[in-house]
Amino acid sequence: MALRLSISPSHAISTCRRGAAGGCFVGTAAAAAAAAYHQKRGLVTAASEVRGAVVAPVRSSGVETTAAVEAVVGRVTEVTKDTFWPIVEAAGDKIVVLDMYTEWCGPCKVMAPKFQEMSEKDLDVVFLKLDCNQDNKPLAKELGIKVVPTFKILKGGKVVMEVTGAKIDELARAIETVKST
């Protein structure tokens, strides 16, 4: 799964807000730093041109423009409160599994490589991760998180199942259950 942006390199995005399709993206220097950070953690966010993706409004140098968001399977994508819903929308009919974690959570650290492995094997599911830090608190609250790790399984843009705790087998069963419905 990768978040891909199609933005002119001359545009530095300073601010944005969620529009009809959602979406908020950072400027080119910040995007490069974020991509390096996520690549180190085995996650993917990449800046490149995308065709056939959901186009989301963003604010670039004070002018509203668009960026393409694409849900790609086979890896875990780190999301934020601003990128989560556009990626869920871009996933279409695919099942989306969101790992809600924190940096300080021991069980979350145990689950991370197992979740990554699951994403590489289950190629018809979109796997996302959300760091439930202060910046992403609004989305965590919106999704009703009470404990980490929490895994939210979405189908058709709606949460249909939840697994709490470091229970990889239970998560796998829940995903299979959602697939069969």
TrEMBL record:
Transmembrane segments: none annotated. Keywords: Disulfide bond. This is Thioredoxin domain-containing protein. Residues 56-180 form the Thioredoxin domain. The keyword Disulfide bond applies. InterPro entries: Thioredoxin-like_sf, Thioredoxin_CS, Thioredoxin_domain. Belongs to the thioredoxin family. Plant F-type subfamily.
